[in-house]
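Letters spell out the chain; the tokens describe the backbone. To illustrate:

===
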Amino acid sequence: MRQAWRFRLLFVVACVFQAAGVAQSQAPYRLTLKEAIDKALQANLSVLVSGTRVHESEGTAARRFSNLLPHVRTETYANYQNRNLRAFGLSIPGLPVPQVIGPFSNYDFRIYADQSILDLESYRSWKASKEELESGKLDFQDARDLIVRSVASLYLNGQAAEARIEAAHSRVRASEALDALARAKHDAGTATGVDVLRAQVQLANDQQALLVAQNQYKQALLVLARSIGIDPGTELELAEPLQFQPIPTSQAETVIASALFARSDYLSLASQRQSLTEQQRANRARWYPKLSLNGNYGALGRSMGDLRGIGLIQGQIDFTIFDHDREGEAQELSSRIERVDDQLADLRRGIAEDIREALLNLESSSDQVKVAQQGRDLAERELELTQDRFQSGVTNNVEVVTAQDELARAQENYILAVASYSDAKFALARAAGGTEKNLGQYMAP
């Protein structure tokens, strides 16, 4: 009997520990902004594709550099053949020269080597590929910066949705208190049934707003999880709430000047232009002479025991006399450079516009936060006063309901203002360049 009770007790304890483990495993994952960005940079498709393009450009540069290195190969032959001398024009009238000789065999073992001594076209093509590789690396960094900007905005949407839930909870608590007060005063005969009904309607409206806010928050987390490569079924929780964290402002001209040396997309275009310039030089070098050295060494004989060492070394100079293709290529490259110059000029104007717009939004949203905070404080004070007036029997609860609506608008204005300020910081970080590297300084309180 005691043994049975022991087994039952052990079973209950095991079930308790298992339930605790399941509860612990199902705890929401607290996600910080930095973690969200790190996960997105590891899983986002555009970043992965840009990374493969960098590897591809590295392979292209290695192939073009191989034209400047020695090329070594080996060949081995073992022949068993007949020869038709008459087919080669070998016949002597009056002499019995056989028409076909053989069969005979010969063996040839040879190593061939070629080395370019002077080839400016290949050298400039290799330099162009190096610039293309640098452009690919900058495009890769620009893709990462764009993902940082995108994930930061999605995280901000989640923060704003979470702040709306907190505001909705506070309004529900206030409405519950108003409903309880209206019922108590009605039971005491100091309030009418309309006051009770009005409080119930307000409570229902606030509960509805809370449900909407909770659903919007869950949707924001779903979008965030998808963008950072997390299973949408994973329960997330934002570790950083929405807060107003002001940063020092800078002069637009200063930020614009530094952005031209930090924006990966602008530097990528500059590298593309330099690559095209090197290709133009390679195009002109097609007229220049090419000097190379090649040779071979090996053994040749009629049998394996009769092999004799032989070899050859020679220098070679190549000149291009007529090449109409070079003119067409030169026209193509000139047009591409002109197109890149136009893109650079347009991007410079775009960078200046983005920076000035971000600074304007930063200044405006900062002022909005201050005004919205004052409005929220006043709305909270108004609600307290109207609640006291209704509790004292000075008036009905119409003023309380009106004050609750005013507070809801004030809370939403504050959330929008803080979110707008944070988004302006993200926009400035992107416009100034080096988003992945410098985002922290825009988020520091």
